[in-house]
Amino acid sequence: MPRVSFEHIVKKYGAVTVLSGLNLAIDDGDFLVLLGPSGCGKTTLLNLLAGLADVTSGRIMIGDRDVTDLDPKDRGLAMVFQSYALYPTKSVEGNLRFGLAATRLARAEADRRIKWAADLLQIGPLMARKPAELSGGQRQRVAIGRALVKHAEVLLFDEPLSNLDAKLRTEMRLEIKKLHEVLHPTVVYVTHDQIEAMTMATQIAVMNGGEIQQFGTPDDVYENPANLFVAGFVGSPAMNLCDARLVARSGGVTGELAEGSSVDLSSYGFAGAPVDGQEIIIGLRPEHFRIGPDLPAEMALTLNLPVRLVERTGSDAILSLSYLDKLLAVRIEPDAAARMKAGQTVAVHYPRTKLNLFDARSGRRL
Amino acid sequence: MTASTTAEVMFPRPKKRIRGRQIAILVFLGMVALFFCVPLYVMVVTSFKPMDQIREGAIFSLPRIWTLEAWRFAWFEACSGLTCNGLRGGFWNSLRILVPSLVASISLSAVTGYALALWNVRWAGSFLFLLFLCAFVPFQIIMYPIIIITVKLQLFGSIWGVALVHTVLAMPVLTLIFRNYYKDIPADIIKAAMMDSGSFWRIFLEVILPMSGNILIVILILQITSIWNDFLVGVTFGGVGAQPMTVNLANMVTVSTGTVSYNVNMAAALLTAIPPLVIYFVLGKFFVQGIAAGAIKG
Lengths: 366, 298
Hints:
heterodimer; A: 366 residues; alpha+beta; Rossmann fold; 2 domains; six-stranded mixed sheet; five-stranded antiparallel sheet; B: 298 residues; MetI-like fold
């Protein structure tokens, strides 16, 4: 049985429909990330689950309980907020204790849980301090601690890391992942950061315009994006999308790119039979490109393109190649990048097995 | 150049000079200060003079003999109407009016403002608009109905009646002030509290009230000054037995028999003005320090 399920959720704010008939089920112990650009309805969905907003219609189940009309405190949830939302006039310990305000625990049990959370998150020495006297990372720990002491069935995170600097964010990301591995709660985590989604999630729901575009494991979402939105949103640098026309003849299936070269699609796993003459979009991940001379697998496509820019980030490098009127991003080894210069023409190859094809009209994966 | 640690001045800044504009401002401020200080000076020195010196007419001169006789007389013996017990009766009345109306008006409006700002209250918008309108209704318009109401409640002419009227009159403005202040508390803190506790009173007492230090000080100063300095409500609803100090003072100085004791009148006026001044000095310090500085930001 799923731990949390959303059934036919509709949410309207006045005349604006944010969610229209959304269905989603999360299994026990899963780490679900709701990923999407701002305004896609992911935070609304989280607030509906938390009970901080009311559904217009539909049903929310936690375990076998219908929680749709329950008060937030009665839903058995704990939440970590983007702004930490610590109570400014309470000490760290007071914050953790207030997290248990609705539970009517015995004093000894409350003390035991607070100590447990403090040890787990290493905030023991900070217990007497006020939130204003803590650093961003420490506040985040306290906020997580306040959620953990409740021993809630489901933990909610609302973009918890977006107020931290890059280094702390990486640390806390790891920390939250470790906590999930140790405690195994069911987690619903909202973010617009795809790195967070890819690294922490066991399941990702990519959302856009109030609808779930794709629901699957991080690998699935990355390697087999269900449509053009997911393809463009997940991945950095973004997937290169090239217009093409499908040519299905007896000799095999190829795609003809707008600039004339042809792509071997014979080993692509089409969902339906390929239609000759269909307008398609071919998605090419930057990191799957190869530059000569020794090529490991059979290549679907070879392009000779002039280099516009070379960006080196240290661990790897991104080539921007002029392709028609746009730029094609290609990830290469930094050593290779050192030899590249703007203006020089380079031959890049793309393997057959890594192709992504989309219907140009509907945007769906073929 | 190598980095040096000596405190040698390399690029001296030009010294700031007093400009003409600044002088003009200082002169203006000085004149304004004099405008308020001169009458105060006259009051203070007169209150310490015996009547003999006052009759000489030199109002700016310092007392030849400093005496507290006028202050003592104003406090213990001065006649107001038929009773001659000085201002102390009015002082205690004022205090007994002030405390309950302060407690009632602030606690009621804080809770109402909190509910309107942070909980889903049906018709909250219309209610706020109504409050807004009420805040602009002149007291004189509703005075007569209120007199009838207090008579029916058998509170007319009592301390509690005056306190009740003060409380009711202050509610619209105070509620709006509290509501606007609480509206600025970050939404996430309220959401967290809803999930952690969900109890209306517990969230108010443990989370919201401790964050209200700043606004409480402001409202306290506002309310103490307005209630203490009030004359109209006191003279209308106080009857004979529950007159506040201001009414007492007015009766005392508008005496129509005998000579006018300027020194006693000045002392009485100063005595009446002292309590709000004390509040300004005591609470003003907290206000400037901002006892809840950073409370909202967390």
